[in-house]
Specification:
Blueprint (H helix, E strand, L loop, with lengths): L8 H5 L3 E2 L3 H12 L7 E2 L2 H10 L15 E3 H4 L11 E5 L5 E6 L2 E4 L4 E10 L15 H7 L5 E5 L6 H14 L2 E7 L10 H10 L7 E6 L7 H14 L4 E3 L11 E3 L4 E4 L4 E4 L14 H10 L10 H10 L8 E6 L6 H15 L4 E5 H7 L8 H20 L3 E5 L5 H13 L3 E7 L3 H7 L4 H6 L21 E3 L6 H14 L11
Parallel strand pairs: 1-4, 8-9, 8-11, 9-10, 11-12, 15-17, 15-18, 16-17, 18-19
Antiparallel strand pairs: 2-7, 3-7, 4-5, 5-7, 6-7, 13-14
Helix pairs in contact: 7-10, 11-17, 13-14
Adenosine-5'-diphosphate binds next to helix 11 and helix 17.
Amino acid sequence: MSNGWVLPDELLRDAPAYTPRPYELADLELLLSGAYAPLSGFMGRADLASVARRGRLADATPWPVPVTLQVPAEVVGGIDLNNPMERRLILTDPEGAPTALLEATDVWPTQQRWYGVGGPVRRIGDGGRGPFQRLRRPPAEIRALLPPGRVLGVIADRPLHRPQLAQIAHAVRTLAAHLLILIPVAENSRDGLPPEALVRSIFGARDRMPPATIVAVPMARRGDEIWDALLRARVARAYGVTHVLSTTELVTGGGLRMLVPRELAYDNRDGQWRWQEDIPPRNRRQALAQEEIDDLLDRGFPLPEWHTPPAVARELSRARPPRRHRGLVVFFTGLSGSGKSTIARGLADALRESGDRTVTLLDGDVVRRELSAGLGFSKADRDTNVRRIGWVAAEVARHRGLAICCPIAPYARARAAAREMAQAAGAGFVLIHVATPLSVCEQRDRKGLYARARAGQLTGMTGIDDPYEEPTDADLVLDTSDVTVEECVRTVLAHLTEHGWVEPRLQPV
Ligand code: ADP
């Protein structure tokens, strides 16, 4: 896959390097592969203004949405637009390996200390990496493979169940088209499915669809459905698609015809999928909603065969195992002395006794000694501490372990980041607010910290001279003022059991 460019070392030596954010790296791959043709680089201000005003690039090519790169001020400091030798910026992947060379033609301030950088990009290094690299073929290569005539493009951003497969088969027949499946692989799907699992699930459905060409495309969502659809249609066209199959009613730009299929329904008289209006209402069986599919998987029930081919179901239950086998982060937050460690230890003991789960206890003090030695109690250091705990916990949970964390975690942003990391690892996250009032915590004063803070010998004490942002997203709230430790542990276990995270027999007697 080397349409790459090998640059003499001396040309690269002094150029600043920068790792763009994940969605920018996805755009970069599409620019480099030709999927965004005729665009060959990140847009400058002229193109951006023109796209915003009239949906066209400055040279009048129709183009639906901005494709931009933003970098922090310190990176821009190394760029001099007036000097051809100092216009270059090396773009690297998250591991720091050079991916592309950007020749900056425009630099402008955007938000505080961040700058937009526009200019053409060229591939350097030895091409991309990542799972299913062999499916990430550039548009020119795919176009050369396609038979002449119509090409039906399906953006498979979700697994294909029987209703969708029936739609695809019908559309292929109606149009007499060749089928091209484009699988977005830049990020987890909207339903939280990792790209590799999505690819495997699509291949699981392959023998249930007409002969198809399948490609993986690093398309990321922009959080705006219309923009996403327009840009996807644009990319599909670069791959040679003449018709796009979509389940939403959207207008496309760029001269593509969008096929809007009517709804399909299952006729249980003869086990066939039919267009809804063709069968009487009483016998309709709709496609399952995503929540229903998730619920079946969470509880470990098989997806019904009438809805999902077994090979697809198998991939989905591997990617989203039942909750009792899935990784979980149990995150306690609360003031010092509220009871986090004590309850967490009781919970860890109960779970270890049962032996169903491997447990990692990431306790505040132990973490401060092992993982976060050297960090203090400033806002930045506290955030770093919580972030490290959240990162390790998510890795534990990625491998289906159960991580219990009990930092004070006074800031909502840091707690939210921990939740996101767990979810991105395909794990669950349960936030438990130990909401014991300050007066009780201070009275307990196990470590004498409150006394020292009151005496002015300790600053930055949460609850005294540092804020605690009360969670609004706690899954469970405990006030330990008048309850025993055992009762608190039992409440937590009951919550985990009720939501399917642990086996029911774990309830202590
Ligand atoms: P944190 O980890 O939140 O700083 P600790 O668990 O270290 O708090 O300390 C909590 C103190 O409160 C312990 O001395 C514990 O024995 C006492 N305590 C009293 N009742 C409870 C309860 N129901 N749950 C947890 N701790 C309790």
